[in-house]
Each structure stands twice: as C-alpha cells, then as structure tokens.
Amino acid sequence: MVRGEDVLTKVTNALVCLLRARRSMGGQVAQLGYVPKLLSLLRQSIGKPARYNLMIQAIRFVEVLAPSAECMRAMGKGQACGLLVRSIKPEPHRDASFTVETVRRLIE
User: Fold this and answer.
1) What domain range is 79 assigned to?
2) Domains in the chain, number
3) pLDDT tens digits along 2-47
4) In this structure, is residue 63 part of a structural domain?
5) What are phi and psi of 94, to 5 degrees?
C-alpha cells in the first residue's frame, strides 16, 4: 500500500481514468450489464460503514458514466439520483459535495 491506499481505491482510480480517456467505453459498460450491478452495490452500501468505502467508489463510477447515453438509459435518472440523494441523508458524508456534483451531472 502506498500512502494508505487500498487495492480497491487503486483499481477504481485506474478504471475511472480509463473511462474518462475513452468515453465510448461507457456504452460497453452498459451493454455488458454492469450498470444495474453498480446501482445494486450503491444501494447495498448506503448507510453502512464500509472498510473500503464502497459507496464512494460506486458514486465515482456513476459520475464517470453519466455522460454515456446508454448508461443513463440503463440507470434511469430517477433511480440513480434517488440513490445518490439517499447516500447523503440523514447525515452528509465527507464526500457529499462530490455526490451533489454527480447528481448535477446526471440531471444535465
């Protein structure tokens, strides 16, 4: 581990960078059926203290996949936004500002 980063964070960083560099891969993520799995992971991690901070990792993926029309159809704006809003209630987490920015990107 470097500077306390765990393996999940490093893998998430790599995949987010890849998806930012290759926007067209977002459609592939949707076609392969990973978007419902991502939302399920987000739903399961809300409100639970997680050792690897799964909720934030899932939110990072939602944020990077938001520009993809295929992913948006697979997510359903209302469902994804609802999950993100639920993640900051009743007490905002330390990454709440990033979550609000992700909701903004989904709404655009």
Assistant:
1) 7-107
2) 1
3) 555 588 888 999 999 999 999 999 999 999 999 999 999 999 988 7
4) yes
5) -65, -20
68-75 long-range contacts, CB within 8 A, separation 24+: 68/23, 68/26, 68/27, 68/29, 68/30, 69/27, 70/26, 70/27, 70/30, 70/31, 71/26, 71/27, 71/29, 71/30, 71/35, 72/106, 73/30, 74/30, 74/35, 74/36, 75/35, 75/39, 75/106
Q: How many CB atoms lie within 10 A of CB 100?
A: 13
Q: What is the mean pLDDT of the chain?
A: 86
Residues 80/39, Cβ–Cβ less than 8 Å: yes
Locate 32 and state its tokens: 């392969």
30 part of a folded domain: yes
64's CB contacts (< 8 A; 6+ apart) are: 16, 19, 20, 26
In the prediction, which pLDDT does 92 show? 77
Q: Does residue 21 belong to any structural domain of this protein?
A: yes
Q: Is residue 2 part of a domain?
A: no
